[in-house]
Structure formats: C-alpha cells, structure tokens
Amino acid sequence: MGISARIVKRIITLLIVTLGVVTLSFCLQIFTGTDPAEMLVRKTTLFATEEQIQAMRVELGLDGTLSEQYADYIKGLLTGDLGISITNRKPVIDNIRNALPVTCMLVIMSMLWVAILTVLISAFSVIWKDKAFDHATRVICIIGICVPSFWLALILLIAFAVEIPIFSVISDGSIKSLILPSISIAIPIACISIRVLRAAVINELKSDYVTYAKARGFSTSKIVYGEVLRNAFPSAITLFAQYCASVFGTSALIETVFSIQGLGYYLTEACESMDVYGISGVVLICAILFVLFNTAADIFSGIICPAYRRKRV
User: Domain ABC transmembrane type-1 spans what residues (predicted)?
Assistant: First the structure.
C-alpha cells in the first residue's frame, strides 16, 4: 500500500471517528437531565413561568423530535453554532474563540519544553546507560510522574512569583507570564515521555543494523542520533500527540492557579454553572483535537520511520 493510500485511509477513519464524537457530544446535551431552556430563563428571570421556558425551548429547537434536534445540531456545527452559553448568554463559539488563543500558546510552550527535554535527556540516558546520570534521571522521572501538575504550579508560583518575584502572580497574557504554567504542565509529561523514549531506544539498539553499525566502528552517540532515535520516535510521537491534545481540556487547574482565562478555565466555569452547551462545546473541540493530533502523529510516524509504516499496513 502506497503512502498516499495510507493517508486517505487515515483521513476516512478520521471522518468516521469525528462523526462519532459529534454524536456523543449531542447525546451529552440531550441526556444530562438538565434543561438548557429552563437554565437560560432562570438565569435572567427570578420567577420564570412555564410559558417563558416553553418559548425558550422553541427558540433553542428543543421542542422537536430527537432526529430533528440531531439534524439541527449538525447544521449548527457546520455553521459554527454551538449554542448559547448559560454562563454569560453569549454564543459558545465566541467564548471558545476568545479562550482558545491563550490556551494554544500555553500548549505550544509546554510541548516545546517536553520535546526538548525528552529528546536530549533520553539520548544522554541511553548513551550513559546504567551510569550516574541514567540513575539520577530515573529517580527524577519517577518523582516527576507522581507529582500533580497543579501542586507543582503552586510551588513554582510561590517560589518565583512571591518569594523571588521574577514572574507575575496573575497572568497578563504575555509570553513571560506563560513560562511557569507551561513548565508546570511540561514536567510530568516530559518525565513519562523520557521513560518511554528511553525504553524504545534501548529496544531499538538490539536491532541487527545497530550491531552492523558498531562493527563498522560508529560511535554509540552517532548511532543513537543518526538512526536509532528516528526509528524509536513513533511511540514517543504518539504519546506526545495524545498529551498535546489532552492538555487543551486538562489545563483547567493550571489556568486557575495562574488566573489564565483559557479554555480549561472556561470549562470549569461552565461546569460550575451547569452550562450544558458550554461543556459539550469544549468537550467537542477537545475530542476533535485529540482525533486530529493522533491522526497527524500516525501519518508523521509513518513518514519518518518506514518500519512503523510497514507495521501499520
């Protein structure tokens, strides 16, 4: 199977999974037991009448059959309509559009830290396998995996914003203000990724081509950086993509600690207000991003590593 056929296959799979995600998001709105029309009316009217609630149901299209509501939901998605937020009575898509840029910057910075730390430390751990650096890295990674990111965020905030006021306590949206939260998110992910990539590299070093390269006199560092890392990358890339997508929805605690008005912060507000449209909108965006990142990781792994491509055929 050629690479173009594999990409087409991945895209078809992506479309099918996306349709499933959209359907689950619709079910989240319908079967939560919360009436969005009643919540919206009672948000603005203290003594809401049944007539007002029914009129809001008609306005929101909740008076139709299940199939009609699903068709309206799909039409709304195609036009960018995710409903009206109960939290502030603004379109959900506008709330997400306002919150997404800062979260994107936070995710990009976090994943840059993860990529740099993972590649460098994993390579050095393999080169100095079973030596002091490798043992120290193992201990640090185990501690880093166990440490909750929000607790690490509080420690960094106290240390570098209160005791040593290098950074601001409240985020102002600048790159500098995102350094501490991005490190808080990156360290636990990097610790996991380092262990995964190190194991993949060590397993790859047992391959025949590595034995041949050593017999020709190539140094361990040249073998690791030249071929082994590229062939060991698929597992790390898949993990990286999954975390990259999940951070969009799981950054709520970090954004709350640093007062960042991002997507996770908006999701927290929506949950507190029982905002069904806000919750399902954020979940839908995060789920689609998760599917997109995993598909991209699968395609990218096949491009950089022919052996992985053959396994996936």
Answer: 100-301
CA of 163: how far to CAs of 146, 153, 166, in Å? 25, 14, 9
Alpha-carbon gap, residue 39 to 48, rounded angstroms? 10
Residue 253 sits at the vertex; the CA angle it makes with 251 and 259, to the nearest 5 degrees, is: 95
Do 71 and 115 lie in a common domain?
no
This model's pTM is above 0.85 = no
Regarding whether 181 and 114 lie in a shared domain, the answer is yes
Range of the domain at 111: 92-312
Task: Say whether both 145 and 46 belong to one domain.
Answer: no
- Of 290, 285, 252, the closest CA to residue 271 belongs to 252
Residue 3: pLDDT above 70? no
Give the angle subtended at the CA of 279 by the CAs of 110 and 43, to the nearest 5°: 130
Q: Tell me the per-residue pLDDT of 26-72, one tens digit each, with 9 for 90 and over.
A: 887 777 767 777 777 777 666 767 777 778 777 777 777 778 888 88
- Output DSSP code: residue 178: G
